[in-house]
Amino acid sequence: MKTTVMSPKDSHASHKNEPDNHEANSLVQRAVRQILSNIGEDANRSGLRRTPERVAAMYNELTRGYQVDPIAMVNDAIFEISYDEMVLVCEIDFYSLCEHHLLPFFGKAHVAYLPRGRVIGLSKIPRIVEMYARRLQVQERMTVQIADFLQEVLDPQGVGVVVEATHMCMAMRGVEKPNSRMITTALKGRFKSDPRTRSEFLAHIDRQRS
Length: 210
Fold this sequence. Notes:
The protein is built from 8 helices and 7 strands. It is of the alpha+beta class. Helix 4 (about 125-135) runs antiparallel to helix 5.
């Protein structure tokens, strides 16, 4: 049986009062031209002439998560099923932008939940990760947002999320440590209160790494 989801809290909604897309693109292009000029480049030379246009299109693509309606995304894919064992999707690739430097961070997300009579369509879990990754982000917040959203729309016995990522703001600038990796977790319900559930979840992830 299909279940209809009521609207989650405003924290999951896309940005309000967004500017007209054409106007926004024009503003981004103008800003990129100014940046090119300020770093000593000639924005009119052949290699850079269309760079502002390309950068504006790129930011539209990399921040498309703001435009996703989360309720429309999941409403047709939540089903009432008598199943209460762990559901885990491992190795979900993602790309995001660090909100501090506008440089990429990327890696893999592992998402699990313990159903309480309701499950979500398999493809929706990577789509949820994508929705939050395709924004200006910090990894800690993204991890929690994924867990909170699943907890809210499914009301499961618990949710576990682990995110592993390489941050270009740490690899190619600043401390310049390209082999470093950041791991964040968000645990809800039984994933937090029950050591056996948490250990099973982490053991599944470890098996994927080996």
